[in-house]
Write a structure and sequence with these properties.
Layout: H1 6-9, H2 12-42, H3 47-62, H4 67-70, H5 76-96, H6 100-128, H7 133-162, H8 167-186, H9 209-235, H10 241-269, H11 271-291, H12 295-309, H13 313-320, H14 328-356, H15 360-376
Helix pairs in contact: 2-5, 2-6, 2-7, 2-8, 2-10, 3-6, 3-14, 5-6, 5-8, 6-14, 7-10, 9-12, 9-14, 9-15, 10-11, 10-12, 11-12, 11-13, 11-15
Length: 392
């Protein structure tokens, strides 16, 4: 497995963000693992209601452009810690309000904290690490969080396979732990005062159009994977909560092993080739969901889908290699909003289409993958640190 250089590991911002990344991702993984069974088995939600919940979950992501104004009050690394605390509070409240209306409210609160953390996290890594380091750091975090997720997935599998522990207890305990780590991080200061000062206003530049377009399509791709693929396994194929947990553990085990090599591959082969590989396979995967109705075949496709999901870090490393350093924070905030335009729309529309025919969202996802495949051919960035032009 690839090792990070000493300069990366000794960077205070790497240590600071690594803790928050692991905590936030584990919390989000646990929330997702329980969500579909919580919604179907305990709340009795329909596909349409589930689509509405997932659309509301993505609404805070659409509002991430407001981060540039919040940064007028908070330093960016402090906002990361505050966001994790808000995220933890939303998870606690998920267990306390077990109804459709309660899930709508708590999902919004949890998601607000999570998306603001993700925005600042991605911005900080592109500011604090150079163009060859950032793919390695992002891939390492995928690997670390996957390993941690294996632990939380195994714990959930054991709890619900061999005990009758109520789901709300897991939500409450997990939320308390997340808040504790967030409070601990508030008192740390890993900032480097010599870095370029980020613009504190919304920035949309024509030269970043391809980055914006790929983010829009990535948001749609992510919803097909996160929302409808898992919902299909639960509703159509009858996967139990411990089977879903086992599947998540397998996914994270593979991510833990493979992610460091994805970062190295981006440095070696470049973003265009790696993203081309992702979207070419994604076309086949989504069509496979729709056309082949076999329980374990669908589960296998979901595992392969998850592997290629990790290639998406190439979108952000592509942006880093073409962006003005002062544009990073506001541009990442804007890109998150663009990403979530589709993420807000797709679950609601997909939920309605699901009611007509469950195959339609996956066929639509395959069409989106074709568009993404075409666009990534326009990427022109260096392999390494030498700059080339981005195709206009």
């Amino acid at each position: 497995m690839a090792k990070l250089s000493k300069s990366i590991r000794n960077n205070p911002m790497y240590k600071y963000l690594t803790l928050l990344v692991v905590v936030a991702t584990v919390g989000h993984q646990a929330w997702r693992t329980l969500l579909n069974n919580f919604a179907v088995d305990q709340l009795g939600l329909s596909g349409l209601q589930m689509g509405l919940v997932q659309s509301l979950r993505e609404l805070p992501g659409f509002l991430t452009f407001l981060v540039v104004y919040v940064l007028l009050i908070f330093k960016e690394h402090r906002l990361s810690a505050f966001s994790v605390i808000l995220f933890g509070a939303g998870i606690i409240m998920t267990g306390l309000f077990p109804s459709f209306q309660g899930l709508l409210f708590t999902t919004f609160l949890m998601s607000l904290g999570y998306h603001y953390f993700e925005t600042t996290r991605q911005s900080l890594v592109l500011q604090y690490f150079n163009k060859r380091q950032s793919p390695l750091v992002l891939a390492k975090w995928r690997s670390l969080t996957a390993f941690a997720n294996i632990g939380i997935g195994a714990a959930i599998w054991i709890l619900f396979r061999f005990t009758d522990l109520p789901m709300y207890v897991v939500y409450i305990v997990l939320g308390i732990l997340i808040i504790g780590f967030g409070i601990y991080s508030i008192f740390k200061d890993p900032a480097d005062k010599d870095l370029p000062i980020q613009h504190k206003k919304i920035i949309i530049r024509k030269k970043y159009w391809l980055f914006y377009a790929l983010n829009f399509l990535s948001g749609a791709r992510r919803q097909i994977f996160v929302v409808f693929a898992v919902f299909m396994l639960v509703q159509k194929y009858g996967f139990t909560i411990w089977q879903i947990s086992a599947l998540f553990v397998l996914n994270n085990l593979i991510t833990w092993l493979v992610s460091p090599y994805i970062g190295k591959a981006i440095n070696r082969f470049g973003e265009r080739k790696m993203l081309t590989l992702e979207y070419a396979f994604l076309i086949v995967i989504f069509l496979g969901y729709a056309l082949f109705e076999f329980k374990w075949f669908a589960a296998g496709l979901y595992v392969v889908d998850h592997i290629f999901f990790n290639f998406s870090i190439g979108i952000h490393t592509f942006f880093q290699k073409t962006a003005d350093p002062k544009d990073i924070a506001p541009s990442i905030a804007v890109s998150f909003s663009i990403n979530h335009i589709s993420a807000v729309i797709i679950p609601a529309i997909g939920g309605m289409l699901w009611m007509l025919n469950w195959q339609i969202p996956f066929i639509f996802g395959s069409a989106l993958a074709v568009v993404s495949l075409i666009l990534v051919q326009l990427i022109r960035v260096p392999i390494g640190d030498s700059m080339q032009e981005v195709k206009k």
